[in-house]
Design goal:
Chain lengths: 296, 335, 282
């Protein structure tokens, strides 16, 4: 297989269920080309974080994948042994987490938390890892790397911690980064800086990003392509510009109507139209019926 | 801030020890029965009794006796044992090392067993392995050390007589030791034959003492590990490519161990309290065994001395745990 | 959610098993003269160290064998249950009354009362409990009441610590504030509003304490300091069994199994009851 023609990430009709039989993902298919930012947008509970976790192999034990494949640069992750899979993922993927307050170990200094992947998984020397980390800290505009690497997480602000996490994510030059609502937990003023920083590093490093968000404004700023998710199902997929210009699916239109900034910043915030949701619900119920029959 | 915390703890410690001294003194003095009468051969005259009472200070009022004794204690003079006619402090120091070695070996065992099962249970959470660990630790916790001791005596002393169930060391051995820390000294002197014999004697009582504590450590640590394992920084470590075992050891263990630590301190004092009966059960020549003899012989000065030494040990352990917690917790350290 | 349901099913089964064993032992104790096959004190040197019924050399009527004085082991265990249960109920109740009252006062009123009670608890916690018990019985003189008093004097702190902590939690709740605004007195609120909410914990501790009391009594008998009459006690049988362990292992095995089952049952019964009556856990 030729890696050049393979998408960086290819998810093929992925379905997952909870122990009580509720489906959280319904035949999700999406792909991310090398160097591309793919936004995954939907309301909370739509399953967007679940997709990110499935890609990285960190789904909670209760969630079970019942069908579909995840391919990373043409490699079927489901077929790999756990150890091989971990090593591959450690080298080629990274995560920018949602909440920088909880994503750093409170009892370890920042420096080792940034270098441990490079040294322990990828086998770099400590010195090489240190140099690399300083380089990245410089790229995320942290001017006093000595102090930061020697700090404990609680000694840094939320924005600083998110910069640290972004630097750590890019440090190993992964092919794919899953960014899981990386700005949601931050102050509005910091959000913009962080978003700009991610976009800048993404361009310079040419990393593909699966960008999970509920915010269409963020989608417009950062992504080239969008998948709109509702109740674990991709309802619309398009180039970002095309989606905003002419949303096809009623749910997408409703979602955009509920986000006033882009259509009309002065309009009041509207909830997603009830009629649209009712239509979707019956559509999904029918799909579930059809899905259950062959699977027993 | 650390120093202030330390000084406050030191003060409460002194108050607690004073309280223990008062309680044990009062309890012993209200005892009916005259310890002096037991020391003398039948047919001793009243004058003999009076002379001995004066010798041990038993002719004074209870308050006078208390302060005389306390003044002695502060100077390091715990009085003279009535039944053994030796200096109490000397007797206690002679026996304390045996008890300390037993307690420490038991603690290490409890940490090893509890820690391993907790990590295993957390790694295999939601599986039959975890359920098995839960059942085992539930049983180990509910059955006290006294009963564990008896079970071990039956299993390994009678059914499969592989371990010694009596004494501290085989009596036929020549001991070159100058201190009473036999185990420690045998290691330092590289006399591993003696180490083996000592450990062989210590194993059963130590396991009996360790099992309930191991169960507590296992349950508590597993619970907090499982809580920590759902946190974002642990998920991030998995994404980095670390295996579940590595994730637990590198990321989760230290943070999960902190809440367990404070409890282990209190539980370790319970373990030391348990040495009293377990030493008796295994005829292990430690402080607790001597304490029971002292009570049976109504040896007042010796009982007081032993109880006070146990109390001192308990408060020192609590102090040590409190300070370790303060030092280990970075948030507390940096205020 | 699911985990909770499963564990509650488990605790239900455990509750019935534990309760069943305790009921059996209690009935045996109550009707000991009727159910015991032999006189527990009758010595018969012809029948010394008889093995239990399934082994060769056993005699009919001596189901679990006999000890070195030829006394029937099963009958001694059944009569021993009488002392065990009397001690368990009396000592645990006494410890519970003293400890829970002090814990309620300490936790609800706080201030000086709390400081003094907590200091006393600290002093008590600095005693090795077994040594303390042995010392107390030695001082009070052997006998049933001494054993009960000694256990209560030592173990009230267990109730005090737990009930104090729970009361402090409850006292911060809104409903206590509401009751105060409604004009109830402090003691009235403590008894009417706080006490019912800590009752599940008291019940669980009470059951646990009964098991501990049984053990402490056995330990005291073991060092020959318990009730010191001819009445058989579980600890006394164990002490006897420890001595003749190489000649007659059954004299140690059966009382040991009895004690383990009883202790396990008391602790599981308490936990099961708490799970059943605690509105939060339910």
């Amino acid at each position: 297989m030729n890696a050049a023609v393979n998408p960086c990430l290819d998810i093929r009709s992925l379905s997952a269920v909870l122990p009580n039989g509720v489906r959280v993902l319904r035949s999700v298919s999406l792909s991310v080309q090398p160097g591309e930012v793919r936004a995954l947008v939907g309301e909370s509970g739509a399953g967007k974080t679940m997709i990110g976790k499935a890609v990285l192999g960190v789904l909670p034990p209760s969630v079970r994948i019942v069908e579909g494949d995840i391919l990373l640069e043409g490699e079927d992750l489901g077929r790999l042994q756990p150890k091989a899979r971990r090593t591959l993922m450690g080298a080629r993927t990274a995560l920018i987490p949602q909440d920088p307050l909880t994503a750093l170990n409170p009892s370890r200094r920042i420096g080792p938390q940034m270098t441990d992947r490079l040294v322990r998984i990828l086998g770099w020397s400590g010195q090489r890892a240190d140099i690399r980390i300083r380089q990245l800290l410089d790229e995320v505009q942290i001017r006093d790397p000595d102090r930061v690497t020697k700090s404990y997480p609680h000694e840094l602000s939320g924005g600083m911690r998110q910069r640290v996490l972004i630097a750590a994510a890019f440090a190993a030059e992964p092919r794919l980064i899953v960014a899981d609502e990386p700005t949601t937990a931050l102050d509005v003023t910091v959000q913009k800086q962080i978003l700009r920083l991610i976009a800048q590093l993404q361009r310079e490093h040419g990393t593909a990003i699966l960008f999970v968000t509920h915010d269409l404004g963020v989608v417009a700023k950062i992504s080239q392509k969008v998948s709109v998710l509702y109740a674990g199902k991709v309802v619309e997929e398009a180039e970002t510009a095309a989606l905003f210009a002419s949303p096809q699916h009623p749910y997408t239109r409703a979602l955009m109507a509920a986000t006033p900034r882009y259509t009309n910043p002065f309009a009041s915030l509207k909830p997603v139209d009830e009629a649209v949701l009712a239509g979707l619900a019956s559509e999904i119920a029918a799909a579930d019926q059809a899905w259950r029959r062959p699977h027993g | 801030m650390l120093l202030q915390r330390f000084l406050i703890r030191l003060l409460t410690m002194a108050i607690t020890l004073f309280g223990v001294a008062v309680v044990v003194f009062v309890v012993i003095r209200v005892a009916p029965g005259d310890p002096i009468a037991m020391m003398l051969p039948p047919g001793a005259t009243d004058a003999d009794i009076a002379r001995l009472r004066a010798l041990y200070g038993l002719d004074k009022t209870i308050v006078e006796q208390f302060f005389i004794w306390l003044a002695g204690v502060v100077r390091g003079d715990f009085g003279t044992s009535i039944s053994l006619r030796q200096d109490v402090l000397g007797l206690v120091f002679n026996r304390l090392p045996a008890t300390l070695e037993l307690a420490i070996v038991a603690l290490l065992m409890a940490l090893a067993i509890g820690g391993t099962t907790a990590i295993l249970g957390a790694r295999e959470r939601g599986t039959a392995v975890e359920a098995g660990i839960d059942i085992a630790s539930g049983a180990a916790l509910s059955i006290p050390d006294f009963l564990w001791g008896l079970v071990l005596i039956l299993l390994f002393g009678v059914l499969m007589p592989v371990f010694d169930i009596s004494g501290r060391v085989s009596p036929q051995l020549d001991l070159p030791f100058v201190t009473q820390f036999y185990l420690f000294e045998s290691l330092v002197r590289l006399r591993f034959d003696l180490t083996k014999d000592l450990l062989g004697h210590m194993l059963m009582p130590a396991v009996a003492l360790a099992l309930p504590l191991a169960a507590i450590i296992s349950q508590l640590l597993k619970q907090s590990l499982k809580e920590v394992l759902d946190l974002d920084y642990v998920v991030l470590a998995r994404v980095k490519g670390f295996s579940e075992t590595q994730v637990i050891l590198r990321e989760a263990l230290k943070n999960a161990a902190l809440p367990t630590l404070t409890l282990v301190g209190v539980q370790f004092t319970f373990l030391i309290g348990g040495t009293v009966i377990v030493e008796r059960l295994f005829s292990y020549e430690g402080l607790g065994n001597m304490a029971i003899d002292a009570v049976i012989n109504r040896d007042l000065p010796l009982i007081q001395g032993i109880v006070l030494v146990f109390a001192l040990l308990f408060v020192l352990i609590n102090l040590a745990v409190d300070m370790t917690y303060a030092v280990l917790n970075p948030r507390l350290r940096h205020g | 959610m699911d985990d909770g349901r499963i564990s509650r099913h488990g605790s239900g089964a455990k509750l019935w098993l534990a309760g069943g064993w305790l009921l059996l032992a209690l009935l045996a104790a109550l009707f000991a003269p009727l159910v015991a096959p032999q006189d527990p004190l009758a010595q018969d040197l012809m029948f010394e160290r008889l093995p239990p019924f399934w082994m060769s050399g056993s005699e009919p009527g001596f189901w679990l064998g006999t000890d070195s004085l030829g006394r029937d082991l099963l009958s001694r265990l059944i009569f021993g249950a009488r002392i065990a249960f009397v001690v368990a109920f009396a000592a645990a109740l006494a410890a519970c009354l003293v400890g829970s009252t002090l814990g309620l006062i300490s936790g609800y009123f706080g201030g000086w009362a709390d400081r003094i009670i907590s200091r006393v608890v600290d002093v008590w916690m600095a005693f090795p409990p077994v040594l303390f018990a042995i010392l107390l019985v030695a001082v009070l003189g052997t006998g049933l009441s001494s054993v009960i008093i000694a256990i209560a004097v030592i173990d009230w702190t267990r109730f005090c610590r737990v009930i104090r902590a729970e009361t402090m939690g409850q006292a911060r709740m809104d409903y206590v504030e509401n009751a105060r605004i409604a004009g109830y007195g402090r003691i009235g609120i403590m008894l009417r509003e706080v006490l019912p909410n800590v009752v599940p914990s008291i019940v669980a501790l009470l059951s646990l304490e009964m098991g501990i009391a049984v053990i402490v009594e056995a330990i005291l008998s073991f060092v020959n300091l318990s009730i010191s009459t001819d009445d058989p006690t579980w600890g006394g049988i164990i002490a006897e069994g420890r001595l003749s362990i190489h000649q007659a292992w059954w004299v140690l095995v059966f009382p040991l199994i009895t004690l383990i089952l009883t202790v396990l049952s008391f602790s599981q019964f308490g936990e099961g009851l708490k799970a059943r009556f605690d509105p939060v856990l339910r």
